Amino acid sequence: MKQNNLVRAILCTALFLIYNACQAQTTPTGELLKAKKAIEKINVLYFDLFSKSDPAIVNLYTDDASLLVPNGPAVRGKKALEKDFKDTFADGKVKGVKFHTENVYGDGKEYLAEEGTWQVFKQGGKLLDDGKYLKLWRKTKAGWKIFRDCFNSDHKAG
User: Fold this and answer.
1) Are 115 and 137 contacting, i.e. CB atoms less than 8 angstroms apart?
2) Residue 112 in contact with residue 135, Cβ under 8 Å?
3) For the domain 27-153, what is the CATH code?
4) For residue 151, what is the enclosing H or E element?
5) 57: exposed, middle or buried (Cβ count in 10 Å: 0-12, 13-18, 19+)
6) What distance lies between CA 63 and its chain's CA centroid?
7) DSSP alpha helices (H): ranges in 52-113?
8) pLDDT interval class at 33 (50, 70, 90)
9) How far, in Å, CA of 31 to CA of 121, rounded?
10) What's CA 38's distance to the chain center, in Å?
11) Alpha helices of 56-136 — where are they, by DSSP H?
């Protein structure tokens, strides 16, 4: 009987430790929570700059950032990002973007990964496309900046 209680106690302790480890990965605290809040503010600024076709949007990225677009080569560095955003704004199809941060991962000190969903809108606010993304953020002297940006659609190409 004592052996069964010992086994139960060990199993309960192990499950408790596993549960706490999982919670620590999915519930931002401390530095990670501060970083998540900072990133959410930057995402709001991103929406605003995009809606105004403002080329200053590239300043939200590191100088050595990469935009990993679906069905095309990576856009690497500030100059390439400037051209990509200029072309996107000139095209005129996309008039707005929206991100929803679902999770953040990391310690919030130097790098942070953001996972979420995105939407892009046409003129008049009509949904054009939506999908999911992963962003790797780097903490710089100027604050958090996007270091790697990867996204894809939830819809088949066609």
Assistant:
1) no
2) no
3) 3.10.450.50
4) strand 143-153
5) buried
6) 18
7) 78-91
8) confident
9) 33
10) 12
11) 78-91
